[in-house]
Amino acid sequence: MGVIMQAFYWDCPKLENKEFDWWNLLKTKLPSLAATGFTALWLPPASKGANLNGMSMGYDPYDYYDLGDVDQKTSVKTWFGSKAELVSLINEAHAHKMAVYADMVLNHTNGADGQELNPIDQKTRWTAYNPGSKKFRRDWASYHPSYFERWDDQVFEGMPDLCHRNPYVYTELMEYARWMIEEIGFDGFRYDFVKGYGAWLISAILERLYTKNGHTNFSPFGVGEYWDSAANISKWLTETNAFTDNPVTAFDFPLRDRLKQLCDTSGFSLKTLAQKGSILTDGLPQYAVSFVENHDIVRTNAIVNDKMLAYAFILTHEGYPCVFWQDYYNWNLAQEGNNSGIAALVKLHEPYAGGTSTVLFVDDSLYIMQRNGWGNQPGLLFVLNSSSQWRGKKLCTKWKNSTLVPKAWRGKDNQDTPFSISTDQNGFAECWSPPRGYAVYVPVQ
Length: 445
Known about the structure:
This protein has 445 residues and is of the alpha/beta class.
């Protein structure tokens, strides 16, 4: 499916001295990202936020149609830049054959222009919106509590929840999604906090046919943030995808929990990686967006040790892997130009990581997986070792009378290069990994 770059983190414009200039910074990174093998960018919410306590990351949307071209909420630009700069970034990404995904915050809004009395419960709330774009004006009837829906938590961190069953709200959000795809140029959406509203809204957005690049049957990508157990995420996926042939995917939070244990917990058994309990291992890899960190989880529950073990896992296995900006750029895990960083793994993903996965061997400290290949992707061999010394195993691979060469590897306090693997006429070979590390082997073609 490719590899996503999550192209932001919390307060990134300020922390990188790129306030109002983030879109331009991303544009300068496109050539190297595309050359490495990234195929998509996930951008932060592009709409003007409430900016109540300084500039906003956009998760408190005020004016959905203000992408940085209306003078309101203390600025014309968003914290990331102007609408023109955003469109230029998207166009340049497309020129590099990269898709661009927008972060869609559809559950709630913030920064209302006035308070109103809701006649249903006689409570006063900030629900009067008169956005500067003059589009999608809102009043109390656009929010919960509402005559159109019986149940809702009503607020998210103090921000009123939109009532999507109100025909006006539904129509406006569908039009907003169309505008973002057809007129701004986005290729898909990451849906924020999907627990907060009905799955049917996402189904409707994904099921609609859009006109893009002269074609009238464009199907946008979609991934939901459903932060929960594998069982509950699977239930949400089933509900959302029941009546659409353009299915949504979901971030694999349970897999990420396992990856944190792999990296940070002494004595973690590698057998756990193959057990059920994640989207990847519960037979739904086509719906799994795998990740190691994101802008939220890194602030409270970051992986602190041997993080490359986690990246090696997601970039060799099934699913749609997503790389976090800070890991790649700020914390020196990209390591472009050598074999021990994220870049080397991304370079291998599209040429080799195709087809189903077969776990050839696993015990508490050694895990060997084979990607079986698909089409022009011949597959790969992944060896993960959590012990403090080199470990290997003789086993049967799919390649007979072949040579497999190491293309990406890393060992803790060990700079040795793994040897190439030669398989016999039955496919058997010794497969090794450095201590507390991994090795990825690919067939010589």
